[in-house]
Amino acid sequence: MAIRLAGLPRLQSVGDRTSPAAIPLFYLAMGLVGAVIAIPFFWMVSTSLKPLDEVFRFQQVLPSQVRWINYAVAWESAPFGRYLFNSAFSAVMILVLQFATIIPAGYGFARLRFPGRDALFLVVLATMMMPVQVTFIPTFLIVSTLGWKDSYLALIVPFATSGFGIFLLRQAFQQVHQDFLDAARLDGCGHLGIMRHVMVPQTIPTLITFGLFSFVAHYNDLFWPLVATESDQMRTITLGLRRFIDMEGTTHWNELMAACVLSMLPLIVLFLFTQRFFIRGVASSGLKG
Q1: Domains and CATH numbers, the chain
Q2: pTM listed for this prediction
Q3: DSSP 8-state class, residue 61
Q4: What count of other Cβ atoms lies within 10 Å of the Cβ of residue 45?
């Protein structure tokens, strides 16, 4: 199938055969985009292995002497184990609470009929338009009033649900065929049984996709932990990297880059294990164009 407009060249649809001349151009464009994205990561890894006096020698791409000791110094110069635990623990607990709230909410908006459903869903969508900077003052006041400041409750509870997650699961639950729900009802399942035995198994890629988005966002969060925590024992990994920046003297950029690489390792491992589900989830949950 093709589309032809007067005065315009012929546009091929997805089903048409790709021109052989376009294939090298496509791979060239993809290679350039990949290189642009990869250069900062390559520079970070290379800098983490350099002596300090070679950090800003841009003509020297690779270190003349590989200094693995930079990683040991970075790990020992701060309580990195504590920072990593705080970031990972808070991100995991946020994800658990979000699953407990967005799955029933997504099911209700997708499959139940009740007065005001569409208006309430518009309110949920409206929350996606508000950045955390808009609501952090009332949230901070609530957290302080409850005595949760500088605790895991302050890091976790304000993010116990997600408007984006509700929207994403609603889209996925709407694509589950009605025959599965009818069969579950014939077997005696109620709404909880349908969610457990039908909806969740049918939308595993979407759940993993949302889980990856949520974990990465809260693991890398800087703004809210900066507001909600005070003691070094409650700092997260993003705040811990600040310890390597010396405002009065020389910043040890090689050790800072080594700390950045260490902080990225959990995310890289997580993505390697979930990338197959991530791609399937994006393709089937309404995020594609």
Answers
A1: 20-67 (no CATH), 77-284 (1.10.3720.10)
A2: 0.81
A3: -
A4: 14
